[in-house]
Amino acid sequence: MDRVRQQTERLSRLFRDAGAVPVETSVLQPADTLLDLYGEDIRARAYVTSDPVLGEQMLRPDFTVPVVQRHMEEGAEPARYTYQGLVFRKQEAGTGRASEYTQVGYEVFDRTDPSGADAEVFALFAQALEGVTLDAFTGDIGILTAAVAGLSTTERRRSALLRHLWRPMRFRALLERFSVPASRVVPQLVSDLPEIGLRSSGEVEARLAALREDAQTAPLDATELRALQAILEVSDVAPNALASLRKIADGLPAISGALDQLEARLSALASRGVDVDQLNFSGAYGRTTMEYYDGFVFGFHADAQVPVATGGRYDALTRVLGQGREIPAVGGVIRPELLEALA
Any idea which positions bind L-histidine (predicted)? Predict the structure, then answer.
């Protein structure tokens, strides 16, 4: 345990030396707002309780959301923060994973150079993990988001796909459903029937209208569908992956802007000494992590174990918590006990 504490302090000192201000957050966090931001996986694993004064509360499942909330309320720009402490998540029986463990994190809020900030965080984490045999993986949720947003279909279908981007099986099922002609027959609402249950007749009619619209919508464009599926299959070192994605953009030009950002990020990483020619990139990486990531994502893994470090960009989260204000933001966390076990 002493060695884990020493590892924790070493990481914290490294982040402070990089310009981060130490911050603390309460172990108890308000559940009503924050649970919706974490996504389905964390909601299912959060420890939630009810307080007679504070209302529904949860044990802190991560630091990023409360740190963002604090920054958007009172932070100056640009800003860098570091933190350390326990987080709490329920685990499935038999996994052997800890339900409480330490995280040490580093977060950057800077609107001047997002690609440079991405590179800063990744390079700093690579430095923190030097001497330990780990495989680094990267991805970009922004490319997938741009691909879905660029599909020539209804807003309803695009929204459904975006909502399930982090649930690979559900996402694939929706793609399959939207790629064939709809065959359902939608009934009409009989207005003189009594209302039964919790939904009003207006809500039922709105749902029927949505089903009618979906039934009349043409299948997804075959070229766009193939391009979207091809993005998910890209897996190579980063420069080769970028070249493959550029070819895919011929059939789905909506991703071109996101690819420009990827190219700028690779350039920024190279300028910080990262060997991008050996850096793994996967079009599907990051789809089972935090749902608030919306751009660059990364992780450092030892074999098939739980990642020692993870992180990513979460610009949209600052918009939600900023109530109209926003700032590009990126960060990550390291688990010192896993790092110490490998050292």
Answer: 62-64, 89, 103, 107, 292-293
Distance of CA 293 to the CA centre of its chain: 2
Q: Which residue has the tokens 């009618």?
A: 212
Tokens 């459904």, located at residue:
160
Which residue did the predictor score with more confidence, 1 or 142?
Answer: 142
Other C-beta atoms within 10 Å of 292: how many? 24
CA angle 45, 166, 291 (to 5 degrees): 60
Please give the structure tokens belonging to residue 225. Answer: 């569908």
If you search the block for the tokens 């793609």, which residue do you land on?
Answer: 175
Mean pLDDT value across the chain: 87
Does the pLDDT value for residue 32 go beyond 80?
A: no
pLDDT in tens, 237-253: 999 999 999 999 999 99
Check: CB of residue 178 under 8 Å from CB of residue 148: no
Half-sphere exposure of 158 (CA within 13 A, CB side): 14
pLDDT at 209: 63
Tokens 């030097």, residue located: 130
Which of 215, 246, 216 shows the shortest CA–CA distance to 231? Answer: 246
> What are the structural domains, with CATH classification, of the chain?
2-146+228-333 (3.30.930.10), 155-191+199-220 (no CATH)
List pLDDT tens digits, range 171-186. 999 999 888 886 654 4
Q: Could you give the 3-state DSSP secondary structure of residue 290? A: coil
Question: Coil, strand or helix: which one is 288?
Answer: coil
Chain position carrying tokens 């399930």: 164
pTM of the entire structure?
A: 0.87
The beta strand positions in the chain, using DSSP E, are: 21-22, 28-30, 48-51, 55-59, 79-88, 100-109, 135-140, 235-237, 280-282, 296-301, 309-313, 329-334
Query: Binding site for L-histidine: residue ranges?
Result: 62-64, 89, 103, 107, 292-293
Residue range 199-220, pLDDT digits in tens: 666 666 666 666 666 666 788 9
Binding-site residues, in ranges, read 62-64, 89, 103, 107, 292-293
* Residues 313 and 102 sit within 8 Å (Cβ to Cβ): no
**How does pLDDT run across 39-50, given as a tens digit for each residue?**
666 667 778 888
